[in-house]
Amino acid sequence: MAARYAKLDSSKHDADSDAISLTQIATTAKNVRFRNEPAADYDDPEPDYDSDGAGNHRYNGARPKHGVAVLPALPGSAAGNLRQTARSADTEHDLSAMENLNEVSILHVLKERFKHDVIQTYIGDVLIVVNPYKKLDFYGDRYHEMYKFVNKRTDLEPHIYWTVDHAYRQMTDTTKNQVILISGESGAGKTESTKLVVKHLTHICQSTMSNLHDRIVKVNPLLEAFGNAQTVMNQNSSRFGKFVELNFNASGHMKGACIHDYLLEKSRVVHIGPHERNFHVFYYMFAGMPAETLRYYYLEDPMAHRILKSDHNQKRMFYDESDRKLCKQKFEEMEEIMGKVAFTKDDISTIYMCLAAVLYITNVEFQPEDDNDGVTIVDDFPVNYVSDLLTIDVDKLKTSLMCRTSVINEEDVIALKTMEQANDERDAVAKALYSRLFGWIVRQVNSKLVDSSSASATTSNSIGILDLSGFENFVDNSFEQLCINVANEKLQYFFNTFIFATEQAIYAEEGIDWSHIEFQNNEDILRLFLGDDDTAPSGSKRSFRRLPNMFTILDDESKSPQTTDSSLVRNWSNNLSDAQNFKSVSGDELAFVITHFADEVTYSANNFLEKNRDRLGANLVSLLQKSENDFIKDLFSAELADTGVLSRTKSKIRKSTGCGLGMKSRKSGRGSVTGETVRKLKTRGKHQMPGTSLHKVQTTASQYFKKSLEELMRKMRTADPLFVRCIKPNLDQERDMWSDKLVQRQLQYSGVLQIAKIARLGYPVRMSFCVFYKRFAMIFQERVPMPSGDACRKALKAAGISDEKFAIGKTKVFMKEDLADHLRLATLGRASVCLQRAIRGHVARRVYQAKKEEEARKRREVEERKRQELKARQQRELEQSQRALEREKARKDAELAASGSEETKPRGQDETPPTEHSVSLARQTS
Ligand SMILES: Nc1ncnc2c1ncn2[C@@H]1O[C@H](COP(=O)(O)OP(=O)(O)OP(=O)(O)O)[C@@H](O)[C@H]1O
Questions:
Q1: Closest ligand 1 atom to the C-alpha of 467?
Q2: From 567's CA, which of 53, 59, 177, 273 has a CA 20 to 30 Å away?
């Protein structure tokens, strides 16, 4: 299929070239046929909707005939076929083409379209998708075909498949990496959109490896099981950032994929907010595993595990029977994928063993020790199970949970832990185990998504799809929400920089008259969090006053053991008092408010320092590194990547040597440190565990976070971006429900109005004079030796193009999209005429040649026949002569015989003299 996009002459292709593919020509006709296809049957009753008076509307109309909706014709369009739909919607399906462009009209158009299940709308090249919260039937095979090579964006209704097709074509045409940035609030539909992007990409191109497409699509539910969870905003919320990179070879065939994971919300493993759940996989396990398997992993009663209970739900794991059934179904799907894609039976068993260990370690409870300052373990039960599951020494585990090693005056000092420290470190083990397991799963999955045979091929391009957790504003917002929201600020900043600032800078640089458009800039807020790192846009020469920033203050505070969460907030308030977007809250020493680009969010700094330190005690690490299980040993010995993930570690991780579950530790009891141990512990001295560097400075969570952002931004900057903006129509996750207020807020902060203005006023297509000529020379009358601005202008004017459709800069031609489409189609038309002419000429020459050959053949046949006839005649004559000679000879012989009696008879009297001809024939014969 990728041959469709093969270039005219790929060997001559360079980065600057913009060749038109042969197959573009070939598929033009195909698309025309699709455009004329009848539209899907659709009832369009006048939609009646209930309003709650607060701007929330629930639609009752526009129901599809057969349960699912189809891509409908818009009201007012000449319904009947997609082409008509596209034409009638020209003013609507691209917001930048609207006559009356303002916030109200944009909101109205989106709402009208949503009412009719038309959820996708363009603003220039940016696609807006409103989450329908219901299954819509316009993502199937028919739509894959329809949006496979679309000549003109406006030919068909807006669709995410167009964005994908466009990215793929851009990549094959320009050999530049592409990135599709999908943004929006939590629950707006980013993950669903990401899946559709991958699905369409796997549809429009071939892969170099069998099953690759299938695998890429299939691994998604597996990653969701481990990385997604139910939140109040979204029942399937991604709790990690995902950058899916699809790699292609020079012919546009997909040769592999890589999933980059970022910022897994590992704190969820140990704490869930009200009305939320832990990671899906725990629920899937309890719903789907047979009872004896559950028993094997010591998992009998789900509600015995602290981390599966929330404040509002202490009794039931599943809401109801259908919830349990769904989780069971998901478990079966997950197991099937694990088996098919990347995991052996032992791997799967190891995964469950780790999950069981997470469930048990978080069940360990401490209480203050009576006769010393430390803590004691309430019940040995869970600790014994953990030691069994992870094959580590049970006594050492207990000691490590109750005591910690710190460095004082360059000496390692083992001390008893306080209650808070013991709880934090217990949770740190669970978080580390879960996040490292997740990283390993991602690594395993990635290893199966690469075509090793073509991995070494040098030429390659990629299309990346970014799906970060969306902006969050819960009742309780903590460190995780802060990181997620800062990542979204950064993404918004990239968007602003690309769409607005860069755009304006380019026009200024090229000397093109451009009316300045104001946009909501979030530079200041990023500086508040990250300082003056890379926030200044390339064109901007403003110098900013250097402000202390939140993350450096957080890191400084995290270094000192004396600081507390409230001292952190005090420090922020004192040092950030000038920052407009930060406010402390009087009366609550832990609360602070940030005015984000999307909304004002109140955070609680409770546990911020501990979460940022993210420290796992050295003695616990050392113990885990000594596990009898190679897998656990390696899991905790592996170096994390710069971004804090294990998936990209270079360290080797060996397979499990079996989980050794021997049910040996089922006895209950009370864990305590013996008097001897306490005596030793109170003594200062060197007690360094072998193989562990206790002095190594640990990277904080915020440092990993900053590295992750840097890496992501690097990826964005080296590619051509395309944007998909997901919009949430209501907060109740309900179908057919629209909140004006909510949507308007999202439109405002995402700068939709400004994008529409830029798309309308600006020139979205631009190319250097050389590329312009290379691409369109075919349709221009005159050939120019040296492409220049004047030559391009002359050529466009000569072709009858009006001035407002283009602008000539210092090095580039700037064009409106419709002009670019027009030129492209004209070139395609001309190319197809030339091609047809060439083909016809070729065919005619072949026919003529064949005819000539036929005539020659016939001539040769005739001559041959004549020659044969002559030969045959000569042969006949020869035979006749021979026969005559023989007869003559026989007569003579007879005469001789008779002459014996008639001696006197004069010789030769009766002889017939031989003819001249017979003599010559006889000579020839002899
Ligand atoms: N195009 C769509 N068609 C039908 N339903 C959709 C679509 N997009 C999203 N949804 C519904 O909305 C839910 C939330 O979408 P999704 O998980 O993609 O949100 P998100 O933006 O990725 O959220 P988060 O940031 O929390 O991960 C989905 O589970 C699905 O039910």
A1: 22
A2: 273
Residue positions forming the annotated binding site for ATP: 184-191
Domain limits of the chain?
1-159+728-762, 345-451+621-701, 479-611, 765-898
CATH of 479-611, one of 1.20.58.530, 1.10.630.10, 1.10.10.10, 3.40.50.300: 1.20.58.530
Q: Is 191 in the pocket of ligand 1 (CB under 6 A)?
A: yes
Q: What pLDDT shows up at residue 561?
A: 81
ipTM over 0.85: yes
Q: Which atom of ligand 1 is nearest to the CA of 192?
A: 18
Residue 747, pLDDT above cutoff 50: yes
Asked if residue 232 has its Cβ within 6 Å of ligand 1, the reply is no
Q: What are phi and psi of 262, to 5 degrees?
A: -135, 145
The phi, psi pair for 529, rounded to 5°, reads -85, -45
Protein residue with least CA distance to atom 31, ligand 1: 133
Q: What spacing in Å lies between the alpha carbon of 685 and ligand 1's midpoint?
A: 56
Task: Round to whole Å and give the CA distance between 520 and 515.
Answer: 17
- Integer Cα distance of 90 and 817 in angstroms: 13
Q: Is the CB of 732 under 6 A from ligand 1?
A: no
CATH of domain 345-451+621-701: 1.20.120.720
Characterize 739-750 residue by residue with b for buried, 16 or more Cβ atoms within 10 angstroms of its Cβ, and e for exposed.
bbebbbebbbbb
**Between these two residues, 311 and 890, which has the higher pLDDT value?**
890
3-class DSSP assignment, residue 771: helix
| Cβ 159 under 6 angstroms from ligand 1 | no
CA angle, residues 693, 696, 698, in degrees to nearest 5: 130
Grouping H, G, I as helix, E, B as strand and the rest as coil, residue 638 is coil
Instruction: Name the residue with tokens 């769409």.
Output: 499
CA nearest ligand 1 atom 14, residue: 187
- CATH fold for the domain made of 765-898: Alpha-Beta Plaits (3.30.70)
pLDDT digits (tens, 9 = 90+) for 628-687: 999 999 999 998 888 989 887 877 788 766 555 554 444 444 444 444 554 455 444 334
